[in-house]
Amino acid sequence: MRTHHNSTSANVTDTVTHKTLPMLASYGLPVAGEYRIETRKLDGQKVPVVVAQWKVPASDDCWPVYEAHLAEDFARITNEVSLQEFNSRYGLLGYHRLNESEMLRRDETWHGDPVPWALAHARVAAGILDVTAIINDVRAAKKKLDRNSLIGLLRALLCEFGKMGLERVFAVGPSRRWEGFTWTTPESFVSRTKFQLQKRFGSNWGSDPIGTAYYVLAWIINQYIRHVRFEFISLDYFARGFGMTESVPRFGPELRWDAMIQVIYWQLAEQVGGAFQRCLRCGLIFPMRSGKDKYCSPRCSDAMRSKKYRASHPGGKGSKGKKPRRKRSRKSTR
User: Fold this and answer.
1) Which of 4, 59, 156, 327 is least surrounded by Cβ atoms within 10 Å, i.e. has the fewest?
2) pTM value > 0.85
3) pLDDT tens-digit series, residues 181-212
4) 181: burial class by Cβ within 10 Å (0-12, 13-18, 19+)?
5) What DSSP designation does 125 have?
């Protein structure tokens, strides 16, 4: 699938379906028709699959629409009905494109999205957005990040991780030391050849929840955007080929992907941001408000300033090198 951001036309009447529909980001073929759920054979088992009730001439695929709120709309999916409504607006997520070689090897020729797989991805997307919202609240000082608020922050993040299919991993032994997470991927819900992924993190979860949250989000998102790429091509080439535009050929980089689910994770990655720093005194991860922030709080900043002053003024006021005061002896009142 070849699409990009630079569409200059929208809501154009398609000559194939004779309907005014949302346009593709690049070459103008819209989403058309309805979608239904049918049972298909997948990896030796029967699963419900969303398939299209229509076909574009010379193609048996459904073309995705790229819009600004694609990821948010996908995260709102909670059941089969809302999934079909999403498909009717945006098209298929592209399971058959991502797993084409495995499906051909098993002689599975259908095109569609397994419902359990799609719903699991929707839960992951919702969890990523919620974790990002928690991080942004910390950055905006709506939620404090200090020793007293750590427990509540940890619980909130763990709740979202649980919705995404993550489980904590502890070291074997009586200490129960936290080591990382296992993740039940959406593919595990429809294929017996997929396994849980396990990730061990070097950061200390108990004192560094924000840093660990970033690690988790990067680990999950990167699974699905590593094949998104930029290519240098003639922009609007396909639109001109289908007679949708008469614009002069333009050349430039174009974002390419193989399935719409990759675009969703690309949008989710764009929403995860913000600079954090480790406090040079206590080691706490805190949101940076400027490029010069080094300490999480005025308390740590003042403590380090006093420490540096004492180190540079060994005989000064309040320094450790100052001689102790001699106590006055009381005179006898006999």
Assistant:
1) 327
2) no
3) 899 999 999 987 777 788 877 666 777 787 78
4) buried
5) H
